[in-house]
Structures are given as C-alpha cells and as structure tokens.
Design goal:
Elements lengths: L5 E3 L5 E2 L20 H7 L11 H12 L7 E6 L5 E8 L5 H15 L1 H7 E9 L6 H4 L8 E2 L3 H14 L15 E5 L1 E2 L11 E6 L2 H8 L15 E8 L5 H21 L3 E9 L2 E8 L2 H14 L6 E5 L8 E3 L11
Parallel strand pairs: 1-7, 2-8, 4-5
Antiparallel strand pairs: 3-4, 3-6, 7-9, 9-11, 10-12, 10-13, 11-12, 13-14
Helix pairs in contact: 2-3, 3-4, 8-9
Length: 335
C-alpha cells in the first residue's frame, strides 16, 4: 500500500491491555464463515432495552436503589475514542458506592442499554450542596458546566449526532485518494499470552483515534467511528519470518493486495496495520461483511499465510467471535 505522509504521535508508552471478555459471546464460527445477520444483531445500536422517559427512570431508580435524582444535575463530555463521561451531581449526596450504582442504573435507563454500552465510558455520582438561602457561598467552581438532569438524554443524543456529522457519509472504500497516515510505537510488557492486539509494538493507521481507543482496552463500538454501517476488524496471523525486514515486506504486500481487492469489490478497506511480538495484523473496515470475508480469505491464502490466521473484531461484544482462514483453522488463542 502506498502511504502518504506519516506523522509521529506521542512517544511510546508501556501499556497493559485488560483482557476483554463477553460471557454471552456466541460459539466461534467452525466453518470459516459467520452469519452477517447474527453478527449485526450483536452490535445493533438499538439492541437491548430501549430508553425510558425521564419520570419513569427516576421512579425506577428511587424504587430499586433508594436514591432520588429528582434535584440532581448532570455534566457530560467526550473522552478518548468518542466515549462520553457522565457526572451526576446529587444534592445532599454522600459519595457512597450505592449512589454510584444508582447513577449508572439511571443513565442506562434514560439512554437505553445500547447507547449506554456503546457510547458511555464512565458514570460518576458526585455529592452536591443541598441548596438553600446561601447559594452563592455553596456554589462550586464548575457549577456552570452542569445542566438539569432532564436534559441528559437529549444532550447525549445531540452529541452523538455531532460525532456522526463529522464522519464520512460514505464507506471508507469509496473515499479514494491518499489519506494522512500516522505511525506510533508502544512498549510491550512480556506476557504468557496476549489479549487482542496487546503484543503490538508498531502501528500505522489513518484512523489514529480509533486505533488508540482499541489498543487502550477501552470499550469499542464501530458505530462510534462510522455512520455508513461499517464493522471494524483485523486479520491476525503468525509471523513466520525471523528477519523483521522480511516480515514487514510481506505484510506490506499483504496490505496492498487486501486493500486493492476489498476496494474493487466495494466491500471494505485496509485502515492500518500492526507488528507484534508474536503476530502481525492488518486492520480493516468491512462494509459488506460476507463479501469482505470471502475476499480476505482468498487473498490471505494466495499470500501463503499459515492456517494460524484469523479474522477478529474490534467491537467489545464480538471479542470472542472469529472467522478462520480455512474450514479447519484451529481456534485462536483466548483473549
């Protein structure tokens, strides 16, 4: 793949990626194929319990947790990877663990399960003054950043629309032209086994915010980085070459072949790659999942990759799902 200008990001850092697991994950594909309908259902932005209206959510939390958020105020802001941090300021609160649990329950009820899982990183309950006659004395320094709690759901929805408005309206395969690529290094801690891409030492990509979010071990949802319905995945294979230059040259040839084939089929695009201690990776945006899988399998086989090659997924609900290179591909190492 011909790369345009690459710019370094922050210096390398030591990272310990938490092992992500999903107890509800389906059995991995045994025949090298995965049904796109079931895959999409597991990451559907409307899956799970829908959002409740504000009064109902308040009443349920009061009944189940004994915490009344009627007079509470909210603050919300974006962190890394388009994830939202929410703070609820509870008048008369005591900063107890129970209030924190109640705050999380309220946010999930008022946003819906899928919105909470895909977009919210943290929910915090913060004790606030009860109010009264001495409001000026009791005011805190960042009072102006809080808004009425009833505005939380519409504010989050508006923020999501803003993120999507800044994303390409078409799938990445349709963009054409050169992209600005970034190269960054990471320090890898020795481990008995590596979860996801936690053995990656060198990464190149034209979607740095996406890759940094995934590699940090944060919750990942493709819907935060694509409004064209793309699913982000990666091809993982054992690097057989002892010489690092030979391994890099082979991966570059694989990237070029995969990108050309996926774009020509209007099925996806290569968005980056990684060199790990044990494995090599090619990161992909899949628009037509079933066709993209077929193309990726064909190109990988023609490139002479070993049977220890898997297509795996960035989305947190799909951590344990995988597609093999062939029908007899063994299961990948556990994440």
């Amino acid at each position: 793949m011909s790369h345009s200008r690459r710019e370094p990001l922050r210096p390398g850092r030591t990272r310990a990626v938490p092992e992500r697991a999903d107890a509800t994950a389906p059995a991995p594909a045994a025949n090298g194929k995965l049904d796109e309908r079931s895959l999409r259902a597991r990451i559907d932005p409307l899956r799970g319990a829908p959002a409740l209206d504000f009064p109902t959510a308040l009443a349920l939390v009061r009944e189940r947790h004994g915490v009344d958020f009627t007079s509470a105020r909210a603050r919300a802001g974006f962190g890394r990877g388009h994830l939202i941090d929410v703070v609820l300021a509870l008048p008369g609160g005591r900063n107890t663990p129970e209030e924190g649990v109640a705050a999380e329950a309220f946010v999930e009820l008022v946003l819906g399960e899928a919105r909470r899982a895909d977009w919210v990183d943290s929910v915090t309950s913060l004790a606030a003054p009860r109010g009264g006659l001495l409001k000026v004395v009791q005011a805190t320094a960042d009072d102006g950043r809080f808004f009425p709690l009833v505005e939380l759901a519409p504010s989050v929805e508006a923020a999501l629309q803003g993120i999507h408005a800044g994303l390409p309206s078409e799938p990445l395969w349709a963009l054409g032209g050169e992209q600005r690529w970034y190269l960054f290094e990471l320090d890898v801690e020795p481990a008995h086994r590596y979860a996801a891409q936690s053995d990656v030492a060198l990464v190149s990509t034209f979607l740095p915010e996406l890759l940094k979010c995934f590699l940090s071990g944060a919750s990942f949802a493709s819907t935060r980085f694509s409004r064209a319905g793309e699913l982000f995945a990666y091809l993982k294979y054992e690097s057989g070459e002892r010489d690092a230059r030979e391994a890099l040259a082979r991966r570059c040839l694989l990237e070029d072949a995969l990108d050309a084939a996926l774009v020509s089929e209007k099925a996806g695009r290569v968005i980056g790659s990684g060199t790990g201690v044990v494995y090599s990776y090619v990161n992909l945006a899949l628009a037509n999942i079933e066709r993209a899988v077929e193309v990726t399998q064909v190109v990988a086989r023609r490139s002479g990759l070993s049977p220890h090659t898997w297509l795996q997924f960035f989305d947190s609900p799909l951590t344990d799902s995988w597609i093999g290179l062939t029908s007899d591909t063994p299961a990948p190492p556990p994440s």
